[in-house]
Design goal:
CATH superfamily of the largest domain: Large-conductance mechanosensitive channel, MscL, domain 1
Strand content: 5-15%
Shape: elongated
Radius of gyration: 32 Å
Order of helices and strands: HHEHEHEE
Number of domains: 2
Strand order of the largest sheet: 1-2
Number of strands: 4
Distance between the termini: 60 Å
CATH architecture of the largest domain: Orthogonal Bundle
Length: about 150
Amino acid sequence: MFKEFREFAVKGNVVDMAVGIIIGAAFGAIVKSLVDDVVMPPVGLVLGNVDFSNLYLLLKDGAVAGPYASLAEAKKAGAVTLNYGLFANAVVSFLIVAFAVFLLVRGINRLRREQESAPAAEPATKECPYCCSAVPLKATRCPHCTSEL
């Protein structure tokens, strides 16, 4: 059983998939940072100094009654909140990742189409009708059986 598992784990597809998952997780962290630290602050500034990570709707007060200055303060008090600002950040992150995956798939499909549409290479040899050996196209006599072609 261990031998079968080792054969499965060492196959190229499994290793490729593992590398893809690891790279995808790292890419997800980079995109999250891009959204939280680079994209959303200027958007919030344009919309009137809004911090999207602190946008929430208070559904029920916590142990300490509100108003709460931030989402972290509301959570600390045990309040029930609807965090639509964090959801907006997640949507923007998803759109960036989806666009990157789209560009990747588009590039791969373009390469596949180019390979499929490339003309097949002309054969460099022909077959001798007498001895069935491969003979260069320009040859007038078979080098194997010396028959005239």
